[in-house]
User: Which sequence fits this backbone?
């Protein structure tokens, strides 16, 4: 697959990615190379990756537990301390090998250690390939609040090897699929239509769908790197989705949702709001709802779940002057951002989701 030129870095794919990575490391003459991975990627992905890494530099592997609960400042302090003890300097390189938690936290650690060292993302999950590793957003959660602490800082390159997807369970694949569906809904109706019948797709088709998803996100980010305008469209489904994800994460009586599972719910809810604001037709809303419900499990909400989720909305990063900001659909393939919705309409959206 053809590489994609992003804002100050390049996204490389499959075999070409390793060739480019090895050439880059040789040219830059780094002092040491550090790898951040989690228990899953360490077990399933590093055995493939390490033999393809051509370097005579010292390599140190720093492993953390897998899962969103590790994406916090305490983990950063632990890794900053390890880097210091192992003699990392300004000429060290950090390779982030794993899913979205690893690319998010690894980019943040690199961006802040000694005021910034180089890092490269090697995403190993579908979610990280099409979303988390692209665009330069790095950061950690603050308690159960998603991505409250962070920076925008781009990697030196991204290497996407789709062979890593063979290590993923189906729920992780669906989690990444949510972001791909979102890219179609906000930017490219034809791309959305590709997902109407996934049973007709084979793995070769999926490579091209991944490539197009990265293209879409990159096209948006190139226009608005710091999220002052069109990049806000990427938040479709995330205002309510993040609140739901945070609520389920902190509530011991709830099953923890993967990011894409929460975002799929958020997209249905925010599509309902788009319909009720006459931005989306009823047929388009029903199409979105039925397609997403055919892929993702329908989650049960109790009556007393709603208010805590509404309370979490105030912490959303997009909010301005105390008002909750939504990115809504303006028909399939287009968006309007900086949209508002009152709690009554949000409540109606949850009622519709449950019906």
Assistant:
């Amino acid at each position: 697959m053809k590489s994609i030129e992003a804002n100050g870095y390049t996204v490389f794919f499959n075999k070409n990615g390793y060739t480019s990575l090895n050439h880059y490391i040789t040219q830059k003459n780094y002092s040491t190379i550090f790898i951040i991975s989690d228990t899953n990627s360490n077990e399933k992905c590093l055995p493939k990756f390490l033999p393809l890494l051509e370097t005579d530099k010292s390599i140190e592997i720093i492993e953390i537990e897998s899962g969103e609960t590790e994406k916090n400042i305490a983990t950063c302090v632990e890794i900053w301390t390890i880097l210091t003890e192992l003699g990392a300097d300004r000429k060290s390189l950090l390779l982030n090998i794993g899913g979205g938690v690893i690319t998010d936290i690894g980019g943040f650690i690199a961006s802040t250690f000694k005021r910034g060292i180089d890092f490269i993302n090697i995403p190993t999950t579908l979610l990280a390939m099409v979303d988390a590793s692209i665009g330069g957003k790095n950061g950690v959660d603050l308690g159960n609040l998603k991505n409250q602490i962070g920076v925008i800082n781009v990697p030196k390159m991204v290497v996407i090897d789709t062979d890593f997807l063979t290590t993923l369970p189906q729920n992780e694949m669906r989690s990444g699929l949510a972001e791909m569906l979102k890219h179609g809904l906000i930017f490219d109706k034809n791309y959305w239509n590709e997902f109407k019948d996934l049973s007709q797709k084979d793995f070769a088709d999926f490579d091209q769908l991944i490539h197009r998803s990265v293209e879409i996100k990159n096209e948006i980010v190139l226009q608005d790197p710091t999220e002052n305008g069109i990049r806000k469209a990427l938040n479709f489904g995330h205002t309510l989705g993040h609140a739901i994800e945070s609520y389920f994460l902190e509530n011991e009586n709830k099953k923890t949702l993967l990011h894409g599972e929460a975002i799929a719910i958020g997209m249905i809810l925010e599509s309902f709001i788009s319909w009720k604001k006459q931005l989306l037709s009823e047929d388009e809303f029903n199409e979105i709802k039925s397609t997403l419900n055919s892929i993702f499990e329908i989650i049960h909400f109790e009556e007393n779940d709603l208010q805590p989720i509404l309370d979490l909305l105030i912490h959303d990063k997009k909010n301005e002057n105390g008002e909750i900001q939504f990115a809504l659909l303006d028909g399939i393939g287009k968006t309007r951002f900086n949209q508002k919705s009152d709690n009554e309409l949000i409540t109606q959206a949850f009622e519709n989701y449950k019906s």
About this structure: The first helix runs from residue 14 to 28. The mean pLDDT is 95. The chain is about 50% helix and 15% strand.
